[in-house]
Amino acid sequence: MDQLNLANPVFATFAIAAAIMVLKGVAMSWLTVARLISENAGMLNPEDLRKTPFNPNPHPDQIGPNDRVDRIRRIQQNDLENLPYFLVAGLLYVTTLPPLWLAQVLFYGYVVTRLAHFVAYYTAQNHEVRAGLWTPGSLIIIFMAGATLLSAF
């Protein structure tokens, strides 16, 4: 497992891409909170209607669907459905000792497609645009997992 350290440029490339994706995933939680505050709506739980210093004037309209808040939640859900596969497949792929240039294309390509997908989703682009940005990232994961399987056999 000598390849799983930052002295290995392939692992360092993965670590950079993975850290960016982890930060992006965590940022979605903060973006959800910011959107909840700015909309003063989109809360999910009845206890969120209790009067508190952060919610001095609760009202029933704060609970329930809010498209602007729900859009952020859908983006986050999409990340939760995709990022773990990248993190696992990428780490396993590092162990196959791929060429650095290919690892950079795959890891950074994934980051670019996920960031572009976020922009498309955030700006309400249609499904075809979002799918067109999601597909390359999914294919990258499939390629890395397949390469790992081939290398292991």
Care to describe what's here?
The chain has a domain at 9-28 and 66-152: Four Helix Bundle (Hemerythrin (Met), subunit A). 71% of the residues lie in helices and 0% in strands. The protein is built from 4 helices and no strands. The protein has helices at residues 9-39, 67-94, 100-122, 127-152.
The CATH C-level class name of the domain at 9-28 and 66-152: Mainly Alpha
| CATH architecture tag of the domain at 9-28 and 66-152 | Up-down Bundle
Radius of gyration: 19 Å
Low-confidence stretches: none
SSE class: mainly alpha
CATH superfamily of the domain at 9-28 and 66-152: Membrane associated eicosanoid/glutathione metabolism-like domain
Hey, roughly how much beta strand do the residues contain? under 5%
Tell me how many strands there are.
Answer: 0
CATH topology (level 3) name of the domain at 9-28 and 66-152: Four Helix Bundle (Hemerythrin (Met), subunit A)
Shape: elongated
Distance between the termini: 17 Å
**Sheet with the most strands, sense and barrel status:** none
Question: How does the SSE layout of this entry go?
Answer:
Blueprint: H1 9-39, H2 67-94, H3 100-122, H4 127-152
